[in-house]
Design goal:
Layout lengths: L1 H14 L11 E2 L1 E9 L4 E9 L7 E8 L4 E7 L1 E3 L2 E10 L6 E10 L3 E4 L3 E5 L3
Protein backbone atom coordinates (compact mmCIF):
# COMPACT_ATOMS: atom_id res chain seq x y z
CA UNK A 1 0.00 0.00 0.00
CA UNK A 2 2.82 2.37 0.92
CA UNK A 3 4.57 1.74 -2.43
CA UNK A 4 1.37 2.48 -4.31
CA UNK A 5 0.93 5.78 -2.46
CA UNK A 6 4.55 6.80 -3.14
CA UNK A 7 4.21 5.87 -6.82
CA UNK A 8 0.96 7.85 -7.09
CA UNK A 9 2.54 10.93 -5.48
CA UNK A 10 5.56 10.67 -7.83
CA UNK A 11 3.31 10.28 -10.86
CA UNK A 12 1.24 13.33 -9.90
CA UNK A 13 4.39 15.41 -9.30
CA UNK A 14 5.86 14.43 -12.67
CA UNK A 15 2.58 15.07 -14.50
CA UNK A 16 2.81 18.73 -13.54
CA UNK A 17 6.35 18.99 -14.96
CA UNK A 18 5.63 17.77 -18.49
CA UNK A 19 4.98 20.46 -21.09
CA UNK A 20 1.47 20.25 -22.47
CA UNK A 21 0.65 21.24 -26.07
CA UNK A 22 -2.77 22.85 -26.13
CA UNK A 23 -4.55 21.57 -29.23
CA UNK A 24 -6.48 24.86 -29.40
CA UNK A 25 -3.30 26.97 -29.64
CA UNK A 26 -2.68 28.03 -33.26
CA UNK A 27 0.69 27.33 -34.84
CA UNK A 28 2.86 30.41 -35.42
CA UNK A 29 3.24 31.34 -39.11
CA UNK A 30 4.64 34.35 -40.97
CA UNK A 31 2.69 36.44 -43.47
CA UNK A 32 4.98 37.87 -46.16
CA UNK A 33 4.07 41.07 -48.02
CA UNK A 34 4.75 40.61 -51.74
CA UNK A 35 3.71 44.08 -52.92
CA UNK A 36 2.19 47.35 -51.69
CA UNK A 37 1.98 50.49 -53.84
CA UNK A 38 -0.30 53.19 -55.23
CA UNK A 39 -1.17 52.93 -58.93
CA UNK A 40 -1.66 55.79 -61.44
CA UNK A 41 -5.44 55.80 -60.81
CA UNK A 42 -4.98 56.48 -57.09
CA UNK A 43 -5.65 52.97 -55.77
CA UNK A 44 -3.55 51.44 -53.03
CA UNK A 45 -2.88 47.75 -53.82
CA UNK A 46 -1.29 45.18 -51.53
CA UNK A 47 -0.76 41.43 -51.60
CA UNK A 48 0.75 38.78 -49.33
CA UNK A 49 1.12 35.08 -48.71
CA UNK A 50 1.51 33.08 -45.48
CA UNK A 51 4.66 31.05 -44.92
CA UNK A 52 4.32 27.96 -42.71
CA UNK A 53 0.82 26.72 -43.55
CA UNK A 54 -1.17 25.63 -46.59
CA UNK A 55 -4.91 26.15 -46.09
CA UNK A 56 -7.95 28.05 -47.28
CA UNK A 57 -10.38 30.05 -45.19
CA UNK A 58 -8.09 31.97 -42.85
CA UNK A 59 -8.35 35.75 -42.52
CA UNK A 60 -5.64 38.13 -43.72
CA UNK A 61 -5.78 41.67 -42.29
CA UNK A 62 -3.78 44.36 -44.07
CA UNK A 63 -3.29 47.28 -41.67
CA UNK A 64 -1.66 50.45 -42.99
CA UNK A 65 -0.30 52.44 -40.01
CA UNK A 66 0.35 56.11 -40.79
CA UNK A 67 3.37 57.94 -39.44
CA UNK A 68 0.93 60.39 -37.80
CA UNK A 69 -0.96 57.61 -35.95
CA UNK A 70 -3.94 56.87 -38.21
CA UNK A 71 -4.66 53.51 -39.77
CA UNK A 72 -6.61 51.85 -42.54
CA UNK A 73 -7.50 48.14 -42.46
CA UNK A 74 -8.46 45.86 -45.34
CA UNK A 75 -9.38 42.17 -45.03
CA UNK A 76 -9.25 39.17 -47.35
CA UNK A 77 -9.86 35.43 -47.10
CA UNK A 78 -6.87 33.18 -47.66
CA UNK A 79 -6.82 30.50 -50.34
CA UNK A 80 -4.49 27.54 -50.81
CA UNK A 81 -2.86 28.01 -54.23
CA UNK A 82 0.00 25.93 -55.65
CA UNK A 83 1.18 24.66 -52.26
CA UNK A 84 1.02 27.89 -50.29
CA UNK A 85 -1.53 30.11 -48.57
CA UNK A 86 -2.30 33.23 -50.61
CA UNK A 87 -3.94 36.29 -49.08
CA UNK A 88 -4.75 37.63 -52.52
CA UNK A 89 -4.76 41.31 -53.38
CA UNK A 90 -6.63 44.05 -51.56
CA UNK A 91 -7.20 47.59 -52.78
CA UNK A 92 -8.74 50.88 -51.77
CA UNK A 93 -8.73 54.37 -53.23
CA UNK A 94 -6.33 56.72 -51.50
CA UNK A 95 -8.86 59.57 -51.33
CA UNK A 96 -9.80 58.94 -47.66
CA UNK A 97 -6.14 58.52 -46.67
CA UNK A 98 -3.80 61.35 -45.77
CA UNK A 99 -0.60 61.65 -47.76
CA UNK A 100 2.48 60.43 -45.95
CA UNK A 101 4.47 57.42 -44.93
CA UNK A 102 2.70 54.24 -43.83
CA UNK A 103 3.81 50.83 -42.59
CA UNK A 104 1.85 47.82 -43.77
CA UNK A 105 1.48 44.98 -41.26
CA UNK A 106 -0.33 41.81 -42.36
CA UNK A 107 -1.80 39.52 -39.73
CA UNK A 108 -3.13 36.04 -40.41
CA UNK A 109 -5.60 34.05 -38.32
CA UNK A 110 -7.26 30.67 -38.73
CA UNK A 111 -8.25 27.88 -36.36
CA UNK A 112 -4.86 26.24 -37.01
CA UNK A 113 -2.41 29.14 -37.44
CA UNK A 114 -1.70 32.79 -36.61
CA UNK A 115 1.07 35.27 -37.25
CA UNK A 116 2.20 38.80 -38.08
CA UNK A 117 4.38 40.06 -40.93
CA UNK A 118 7.41 42.28 -40.79
CA UNK A 119 6.55 45.97 -41.49
CA UNK A 120 6.53 47.01 -45.15
CA UNK A 121 6.96 50.71 -46.03
CA UNK A 122 4.36 52.37 -48.26
CA UNK A 123 4.11 56.02 -49.39
CA UNK A 124 0.75 57.67 -50.07
CA UNK A 125 1.29 60.62 -52.43
CA UNK A 126 -0.41 64.01 -52.24
CA UNK A 127 -3.82 63.91 -53.88
Amino acid sequence: MKRTAVALVALLALAGCAPVQDAATPRTVEPVVTAAAVDADGFLHASAYVDGVVESGGTCRFTFWADWGGASRLTSKATAVDGRTECGEVEEHIQPLRAGEYELIVTYESSAAAGTSEPFAVSIPEH
